[in-house]
Amino acid sequence: MPSTLIAGAVPGTTSPHTPDVADTTLTGDFATDRDTATGLLRTLTARITELPTRGERTEHQQRTADTLHRGARTLRRDFLARHAEQVYTELTDGHTRHLRLDRLAELAADRYPGLVPGRDLLAADGRLAQRDKEGWEIDLGIFFHAVLDSPRAGSHLLCTMLRPTPDALAALPEYRRTGRADLKLATVTRRDGIAHLELCNDAYLNAEDDAAVAALETGTDLVLLDEASRVGVLRGAPMSHSAYRGRRVFSAGINLTHLYHGEISLLGFFLRREIGYIAKFTRGLCLDGEAGGERWWPQADKPWVGAVDSFAIGGGMQILPTLDRVVAADDSWFSLPAMEEGLVPGVANLRLTALTGSRPARRIVLWGHRLRAGDPDAALLVDETAPADAMDAAVERAAQHLDNPAVAANRRMMTLGEEPLDLFRRYMAAYALEQSYRLYSPDLIANLERTWISRRARSGGGLR
């Protein structure tokens, strides 16, 4: 049935040369709707880019921009609700091409102008602090929500993101030969059949950003592809920061300094992290070029031990439910400051609820409840605690125990029961949309400003 799109108009936001979204009707015919939608979206995008940048606008100009965005996003969502699967099928040549997030978005911007922001718009926003960005990534969130919400397209995209990265394939021969890879912000070292993946973002107490996510995914691929190792260990490297000099730190979560400066991206961090290396911890790699959707089954997966030293904050804590054994130093602690930051904590809302139950999960996510390794509630996340000076031996024992041929089959069946691919796909569809809006929410910007001002006042900084 035809659908008329309605966007609330603000005086002065249309011109004789600008069609009104309220007059636009989608018919359900793909070719007709494509031409209608892209034609109007190009016009609305041009109107927005003609305005001064967000930081230089008057209140009236910002209201105009908000109205134009609202109309454009209504149209994008309506078009994609009808045609996302056909768009994805066309972009991937009938699901025969495996396009990662960034390449898929670029191709969509080229073939469907206005539907997805192009490189120039994203690059312009990428040079600005988070508070000054236009927020074009919200439109990426709308696009990937629709793609992931389609069972066929979404499953194909998830399997594409489970394939080894080009960087990992390039580094693999040398890693196989030497048993070591230096990925700058991460290292991989093989010892006695155990592969140790260490995050080493020393300047930020092992906080994660786009570059760290890329390094961790490459390292994860190397661990899973290398036939000479049978178990993976995830750990944080020792730090040089004055408060933790010489001590290992598992993770300080998202790098809030980089987020404040606008250097954390929706695709390169938030989505790539969840359906890239963390999904590979859970599901392994997809190596079959023809695999996709319901027919996919892991072809390269291994058990993982998490070794938590000092603390696992935010994103660090999010990882723990995906690991097969978590060994924590007895003085370590865990927290998910989602409300403090204003973000959705990855897939933690799904996994923690399944792991701990509803009430503890709400205390952790909604109330910022901090857990210490020895707390009774922490037993739902931590399998074993050890004194800090005995962690190496405890981690080694855990890895040796998981070095068993029967482990892989059993963990695959557990994952199938705990988190079926279709459940994960539907969660990630909603997450793509919710997190894209959260990134540009006034409360998140205010939280960043308060954190930054407080950090500058302390003049030490660098803790996240």
UniProtKB/TrEMBL annotation:
InterPro entries in UniProt: ClpP/crotonase-like_dom_sf, Enoyl-CoA_hydra/iso
A single BP term in Gene Ontology: fatty acid beta-oxidation
Region feature Disordered, mapped onto this chain: 1-21
Superkingdom of origin: Bacteria
Molecular function via GO: dioxygenase activity; lyase activity
UniProt keywords, alphabetically: Dioxygenase, Lipid metabolism, Lyase, Oxidoreductase
PANTHER family assigned to the protein according to its UniProt record, in alphabetical order: (7AS)-7A-METHYL-1,5-DIOXO-2,3,5,6,7,7A-HEXAHYDRO-1H-INDENE-CARBOXYL-COA HYDROLASE (PTHR11941:SF169), ENOYL-COA HYDRATASE-RELATED (PTHR11941)
Family: Belongs to the enoyl-CoA hydratase/isomerase family.
Protein's name according to its UniProt entry: Phenylacetyl-CoA dioxygenase
Source organism: Streptomyces virginiae (Streptomyces cinnamonensis)
